[in-house]
Design brief:
InterPro entries: Pectin_lyas_fold, Pectin_lyase_fold/virulence, Polysaccharide_Lyase_1. With 438 residues, this protein is α/β, with parallel strands linked by helices. The protein contains seven helices and 23 strands. The chain has two domains: 315 residues, Pectate Lyase C-like (3 Solenoid); 34 residues, no CATH class. It has a 23-stranded mixed beta sheet that branches. Bound molecules: 2-acetamido-2-deoxy-beta-D-glucopyranose (5 copies). One 2-acetamido-2-deoxy-beta-D-glucopyranose (NAG) binds next to loops.
């Protein structure tokens, strides 16, 4: 009887513990879904577009246990790289106007355990540090990137390389690694898993991505990779264990090699339903140029086929018969549905800037438009600006939650009550606010 009682207590305790593992935010998926971010910490409101100092983005992410919101929109021009601390939530969706673009250099997330980054643009550019990436993760665990637009890396654009585990990159655009290196990025871990979900790799000469370790690549679109390769399957003497499911690969003007290259028998992979449109027969380039400014809903025809699972098509990898038991997605899309979901939703899509709009229109040309670039300051990229600033809603107590939202949700607009959990759902009040915006 006593033992049964103790056992029961143990079961209750264990399930109570399990129920604490809420997702980073509703809709968080993959290996990084349980990142905690700044939950339980304080709110830091970014109030200016300065490179550094009080109220700046750099200052906001310099300390752990913070939920970072924005009372300004626009371009934050940075000179040196920004280092993100552990246990930080970056809620780009709170910025008014067209949101936030961080331009001029890259960011390090090395050691940024339990970070959550949403709805923000990181555009490095040719003035950034030579040999550095748009986003670098050299070590750390439990990170999730959601609806991020990252471009113009000087070395890699989004690079994970080292002792890294439990990372998700979802609904993100990884674009235009600058020439001459022009890389999407390494996604190489020596330890844990990385999920890349519903994201767009576009206009990178090579490494779109280059994968090693434990990885799932699901419902992504890869467009206009260059001669260096699309998905590079390991190219390694170390073992990899991967799922590659329901993705779409589309050749563009720079594409000269097949989607999968440099695999070998160390690269164990489960593949299914990967679709390849190789014929570059989209809209005539001149016609696309005309209509992409007048009617962006006009698209060419996606007329490829599912890649047969031959070792030739997948460059000598070792196929496995059953899917590795990784977190995967809540809803696996058919490749062509993934294509439209990525085109409409990937990147900082709460408000797309000119750069992402142009990139998405390149994909819609289905083979005729797209380019590898070496200088983002020239037209039409124009350094990623301008970005409309907008006006933040009234927040009398400065707790990051607007008065109107606080009143509607039974909170006090005159008291800082950001870190309470009024509705008992496990998220801080401020998290309910930031999650309600998207
Ligand atoms: C932000 O930068 C502007 C312009 O350099 C300066 O006037 C202002 O004092 C800075 N704000 C803070 C909080 O440092
Ligand atoms: C990664 O996630 C798995 C599954 O939730 C967990 O067992 C493991 O401890 C995590 N690793 C790290 C380093 O947090
Ligand atoms: C844009 O193109 C689409 C597809 O051809 C067409 O259905 C739509 O009517 C066009 N819209 C405008 C405003 O011309
Ligand atoms: C690759 O897949 C395509 C489409 O399914 C198929 O037609 C082709 O024969 C395959 N090529 C090789 C070399 O296996
Ligand atoms: C440095 C380098 O190899 N650049 C190449 C990138 O890819 C484009 C198109 O595939 C080539 O034209 C460049 O020469």
């Amino acid at each position: 009887m006593l033992w049964t009682g103790l056992l029961h207590l143990l079961v209750v305790l264990l399930s109570a513990h399990t129920s604490l593992a809420i997702p980073a935010f509703p809709g968080a998926e993959g290996f990084g879904a349980s990142a905690i971010g700044g939950r339980g910490g304080s709110v830091y409101i970014v109030t200016n577009l300065n490179d550094s100092g009080a109220g700046s983005f750099r200052d906001a992410v310099s300390q752990s246990h913070r939920i970072v919101t924005f009372a300004v929109g626009g371009v934050i021009k940075i000179n040196s790289r920004i280092v993100v601390s552990s246990h930080v939530t970056i809620a780009g969706q709170t910025a008014p106007g067209q949101g936030i673009t961080v331009y001029g250099n890259g960011l390090s997330y090395s050691g940024a355990d339990h970070s959550i980054t949403r709805y923000i643009r990181y555009r490095m550019g040719k003035g950034g540090d030579a040999g550095k990436d748009g986003i670098t993760i050299a070590n750390g665990n439990n990170m999730i990137f959601d609806h991020v637009s990252v471009s113009w890396g000087r070395d890699e654009t989004f690079s994970i390389n080292g002792d890294v585990s439990n990372v998700t990159i979802q609904d993100t655009i990884i674009a235009q690694g600058l020439q001459t290196h022009s890389c999407g990025g390494l996604i190489q871990t020596s330890t844990g898993g990385v999920s890349i979900i519903r994201s767009l790799y576009i206009d990178n000469k090579t490494r779109n991505p280059k994968v090693k370790g434990v990885n799932e690549f699901v419902n992504n679109v890869v467009y206009n990779w260059g001669g260096g390769g699309g998905y590079i399957a390991g190219d390694s003497s170390e073992k990899s264990f991967t799922n590659i499911m329901n993705n779409v690969f589309i050749s563009g003007p720079s594409t000269s090699v097949s989607p999968f290259t440099r695999g070998n028998a160390n690269f164990q992979t489960f593949v299914q339903h990967n679709y390849y449109d190789s014929n570059k027969n989209g809209l005539m380039k001149w016609f696309h140029r005309i209509i992409d400014t007048t009617n962006s809903s006009f698209t060419g025809k996606l007329d490829g086929a599912e890649l047969a699972a031959t070792t030739d098509n997948y460059s000598g990898v070792a196929f496995v018969g059953t899917r590795f038991n990784y977190p995967t997605v809540n809803k696996l899309l058919a490749p062509l549905d993934a294509y439209s979901t990525v085109l409409s939703g990937a990147g900082m899509s709460k408000s797309r800037d000119n750069v992402d709009t142009l990139l998405v229109n390149e994909v819609k040309s289905l083979g005729t438009s797209g380019e590898l670039i070496s200088d983002e300051t020239v037209s039409p990229w124009n350094s990623g600006g301008p970005i409309a600033g907008g006006t933040a809603p009234k927040d009398s107590d400065g707790d990051g939650m607007p008065d109107a939202w606080e009143k509607a949700n039974g909170l006090n607009p005159n008291v800082n009550d950001a870190s309470g959990d009024k509705n008992g759902d496990g998220y801080d009040n401020i998290e309910n606010y930031i999650n309600s915006l998207v």
